[in-house]
Each structure stands twice: as structure tokens, then as C-alpha cells.
Amino acid sequence: xxxxxxxxxxTQANSPLTxxxxxxxxxxxxxxxxxxxxxxxxxxxxxxxxxxxGSRGISDPARVREPDVADFLASLRQxxxxxxxxxxxxxxxxxxxxxxxHRFLALEGATGTDPASGVAPPxxxxxxxxxxxxxxxxxxxxxxxxxxTPASLRDRAMLEVLYGAGARISEAVGLDLDDIDLEQxxxxxxxxxxxxxxxxxxxxxxxxxxxxxVRARPTMAQRGRGTPALFLNLRGARLSRQGAWxxxxxxxxxxxLSATVSPHTLRHSFATHMxxxxxxxxxxxxxxxxxxxxxxxxxxxxxxxxLREVYAEAHPRAR
Length: 319
Known about the structure:
Layout: H1 3-9, H2 16-30, H3 36-54, H4 66-78, H5 88-107, H6 134-144, H7 150-164, H8 169-173, E1 180-181, E2 186-190, E3 196-200, H9 203-215, H10 217-221, H11 241-255, H12 263-276, H13 281-288, H14 293-296, H15 298-314
Antiparallel strand pairs: 1-2, 2-3
């Protein structure tokens, strides 16, 4: 790319906009402890935003006005020749990055105003989290431990942690041996923003973890260079998110589950089954590591929907 082309799209390496974006991302990483996945997502969104502003000849955040931000949001929804249109959910997520960026600059005094504060995100349809039944969970867990190989013992233990503790997949693969307390039946999880929480797990997870750590992990560890990671791949290194996803997908296929099962399905099912069992929503919030109870409340819609279905089937005057 020539110097003139770089200047045209606003992405020159040392423009005020580039420096400001770099400064905000550094602030999120150092001061706020933002997760790597969050930073990667924000960087991608702001690169697209910077290219849009560059097409208007704007390379300084102080020159951005509210119509520029609103037009950027509209361009995301409409799409371009280079990019397909984004859904309301994806566009709203991109706007979160843009609003956070401009709010930071305004609070730091780098710009006189916040041009993004008045731009409302598109309305996102409220979607219920996908959860599977307790019977389907049991079938999935059984299918994870076909045979008595190190990999099958690992997969069973991992799925038991995902469902038994409501862990995110990134939290599960990030576990070290010292994060598991088998005597107390608890696991230390590091969630978004490096927030730490201690979550209990039941006897089924404890048994699966014991079988894996005693009978399988030592064999797998011999193939590697030594790592504190709890869940290992067949080369003795820490299991990746992709490796964990593949194990779950394979177990779902063996279990004959028609619904699409992902790592988050177990977390959704954990929350839904807890609430169905009478757990207080604030307790479920703490177990899931949600910063706000509002995020957890989406699961109450699942249980209400379940009640409606039961009522419709059972009550003589429901239909």
C-alpha cells in the first residue's frame, strides 16, 4: 500500500486516530485486565471503524461527529461490496467498541465531546440460550467416555467440569492442576477480565477428575515438556479451545443429539437446570461469574417458557 493509499483510508501507522486506538486498547489490557479475546474483537471492530472514517478523510478522533458514528453503524447493517451486512447483534457489538473508545477519549480530555454517546445500537432480538434436557446431558456425558483411553477419560472429566461448574470453555482449558480441589469439591475459575471465582462441583465431576488425573494425565504428560495445565492433548501440551470443541462435538454425535451442541450449551444447561431446581438467581449469577444479574435473567425466560409448555400440555383448558 502506498503512502497516499494509507492516508486515504485513515490507517496510517502514526495518525492521531491510530495512536488513540492503541492507547485505549492498552488501557483496557493494563488497567482493566480485559481478556485477549475481547481485545482482539475490539481491535477488529475499531480497524473497520478507522477505515470508514478514513474514507471520509478523518484521521483525528477530535474531528469525528455524531453523524459519522451513526453513518458507520448504518454501513455495518447495509454492508458494502467488500463486506456483507452484519446482523443487529454483530453491529451492536461493534458499536460497543466505538462507544467505549470515544467515551475513554472524552473522559481523558483528549477530545472535547463524545460523538458516540447519542448513537443508539440497533434493537437486538432477545434469543433464549440453548439448553438441553437433563437426560440429554447424561447421554452426552456417557458418550464422552467411550472406552478407557486417556483421551476419553479427559473428555469425560472436561465435560463434567463444564456442566458441573457452569464453566466457560476458555476457563476450563485454562485450568491448572492447582485450580482443582478434589477434597473440597471446588474449582477456581478465572473469568472475563481475570475475575476469579470459586465454584463447587458434585461427586460425578469429582469421580471423573480423579479418574483422569490418576489414570490418564500422567501418561499424557510424559509426552510433553512439563506443564501445570489440567487438561492435556495427546502431545502432552495444554488442550486448546479447538481441541475441546472437537471432543464435545464428537461426544454429541455419538450421543445422537439432534440439537447443535457447543461448549456453551453445557453452561446454558447448567444455569437453566439450576433455576429449574429452585436456585436463587443471585446464586446462579455468582456461579456463572456474571458481572450483572441482568445477564443471568435471560435464563429465567427459559424456565418460564418451559412452564408454559408444561401448562399447555397438562391443563385441560389450556387449549
